[in-house]
Amino acid sequence: MQGLMQDQQLLISSLIEFANRFHGDAEIVSRRVEGDIHRYTYRDLTARAKQLANALDGLKLAHGDRVASLAWNGYRHMEMYYGVSGSGRVLHTINPRLHPEQIAWIVNHAEDQVLCFDTTFLPLIQAVHAKCPTVRQWVALCDADKLPTDSGIPGLVSYEAWIAGQSKNYRWPQLDENTASSMCYTSGTTGNPKAVLYSHRSSVLHAYGAALPDVMNLSARDAVLPVVPMFHVNAWGLPYSAALTGAKVVFPGPALDGKSLYDLIEAEGVTFAAGVPTVWQMLLTHMQQGGLKFSHLNRTVIGGSACPPAMIDTFEDTYGVRVLHAWGMTEMSPLGTLGTLKNKHLALPKEQQRKILQKQGRPIYGVDMRIVDSDGRDQPWDGKACGDLLVRGPWILDTYYKGASPLVKDEEGRGWFPTGDVATIDPDGYMQITDRTKDVIKSGGEWISSIDIENIAMGHPAVAMAACIGMPHPKWDERPIVAVAKKAGAEVSREELLAFFDGKTAKWQIPDDVVFVDAIPLGATGKMLKTKLREQLAGYKLPGL
Ligand code: ADP
Known about the structure:
By secondary structure, the protein is α/β, with parallel strands linked by helices. It is 28% helix and 24% strand. The chain starts with 11 loop residues before the first helix and ends in a 9-residue tail after the last helix.
């Protein structure tokens, strides 16, 4: 027997229509590339997203055609989120920090037909446009009078001139909810990037999941600052879940330094912020130097790479900001787990609560997970045994666009996505990442977690960033060393740092050496690039060898 309820498809256009009707005057505030602050409402955003949809119709773009963005976090980018996907096209958000060759490769692979870019990226577009024959309309995300002259880019128009004459009325198509809505390429630290193609259904379900109280707890009382870029897995879905809840949105534009972020947080009464640890490190340094405090910020979601426990302590103890440690992947839209306590933990002493919150958290409804050994056998959930982490759920990848399905089947024939992460799960379902599979250090048949070693090193007050890698060893296979970038003006010796590990981890896990570097190389999404670090340390020999 079928249920007798209304059959409504889950569409991205419904999110912005909801915000328009019930939170029409809630604000969207953006720091623009020009440096000034722009301010308008969901009502304005909806009208302009419709103008954009009409402009795309004007180009005779079919449903499913790809429209690319190369842009910072800002209101025009958010209009693209709704105008492009809502009208049945696929929004392809490109990471501008990738190598130009890789960007050209991605544009061709996606067969983008329209590419809209912030004027900051003009030199990049000038370098790649001739290699992107599928693009038939280049759009600069700027006012008509700011359109670069003599750019050499054929047919370049300004976004404002392009949408200006268009009607603010548009009937969003009633698509099948499994229609593709947007796409994002993995950062591809090895080989060519792979394309993840999200659907309306996966994006809306993810937006619901992300807003839940045990996840980001978003509401119409929040002012949300997505520092995580809109080209990095849809800013973790925030442009969608903000509309779903009617939250005020504050976009930082290109200004991601500590001072700019702090000033924006204070000026706009930001209550909730989201970003990777490296960004927060800059913010905290700025605040510590100036003896500053937050007046409204009460929680921040940190993910993308492991959040050092010392950062959680500083946010909570010095600034009264709750850290929500989250884990996810491009292939997961991205949210998989997030750390919040359960009722039974409330009476625990603070140190024990902190231990739980340092982990990557527990699954959000919609995500299931397992850890398995190399033969695919399930490992116990005892918080100690580690295994390869597999996940499944309605917002998790099945097959790469123009690629293969990486899923592995269980005995019931259900497909699980292999994350490439190694993790433990405790009896309460809290997951802790110990490593990327390729970063695991194997010493004498035992595994050493590079993240554990990095977390300890970053607990030292002189350490700005630490990266632990394995080095070949004739007896033990590999031994860990830790590369350390010191905080400006801070001093610590190799011996002091090695002594700092005493009592914090098993003796055999303590690194054999500390190598001081000017900076730890970071990839396009702000994560440590261990491959690059290994290249930099070519020729390095462990002490005593
Ligand atoms: P890519 O896989 O291309 O680097 P993603 O943004 O999809 O880009 O990265 C996902 C990976 O980032 C995860 O598989 C995991 O290794 C790492 N990661 C994400 N969040 C965390 C976290 N909170 N702690 C540790 N690692 C994390």
